[in-house]
Amino acid sequence: MTGHLECILLIASASLIQAAFVLPIKYFRDWRWEQMWVAQALTCSFCALLWACFLPLEFWRLAAALPLHHWILCYALGLLWGVGGVAYGLTVTRLGISFAYSFVFGVTILVGTLLPLLLDSTQKPSKPYAFAGGIFLGLIGTAAIGVVRRGRREDDLMPLPFPPPRYRWAICLALAAGTFSACYGLAFTVRMDVLTSLIDRGVSAATASLAVALPLYLGSASFQVPFGLVCARRTGTLDLFVRRGNSRNWALAMAMGICGTGGSLFYGWASSRRGHLPPNISYCILTILFIVAGNTMAYFTGELRHRSLAANAPLLASLACLMSAIWLLRAG
User: Fold this and answer.
1) Is 195 within the bounds of a domain?
2) Residue 32: which of 226, 166, 167, 231 has the closest Cα?
3) pTM of the model
4) Which of 101-105, 132-136, 265-269, 270-274 has the lowest mean pLDDT?
5) Strand, coil or helix: what is 194?
């Protein structure tokens, strides 16, 4: 098995785990959107900190020597990622799981893949035509899925702290969500030199990735938790956080936290291990596989199962287009 293929399999694992992040939403009881979002932000940060507790002392010795601007940059990108996460959560509720996966993370194909090229011209692809073809097919596939899934709503997911936006404003919200969500991949891309230096000093790829993942999650929670608490105060639902019988809801939130940090573990491992793909291409493949996994899960959760095979044929063709995009991106 080639190094690139191993990386893609690890990225596929990351995308599958992270796509499962939203599955518990339908099973929360008596919680609103703001309670769920605060809880998942806390559990994601807790899982990242717990992961950090089991790292070897050698990692912390090397991490302590990293310059301060590294931690500030990753934390700032985490704040923006948190903004994108909130916007994504609202988009899922308004536009539906499949469409949100397709549109929001389709935007990151452009932002997360092309922006690093503008910031660092040395990251030019070795085969520009294959790279451009992969980007093109990725955009075509996500656009086609968006057309197929257009207008699908998830009103029964969870009450919002404010009225759902109109469709066109929800699309603008989805655009912002995709742009800021790309900060996750951008952090791994622009700080790849830090991860490489840690690995060269004997730290494993999976362990080294925490030097980026930990400040990302803490930065994200720094926005999401206050935002959710403000929303809860606005709606008069702060008491729902401490109401009796919340153990089920907190367990579901912990499952979301495990999915979030577990996906980061696999992605950090894949994007920085020996023989890895260029980091911006790794992130593009992650978003594409995230879309594929999200739409596949939508079928198994019943969102698409009621449709006939003929009705789902355009969706299947779009997913095949996305898989072709991965093949071209790997070649590029």
Assistant:
1) yes
2) 231
3) 0.86
4) 101-105
5) helix
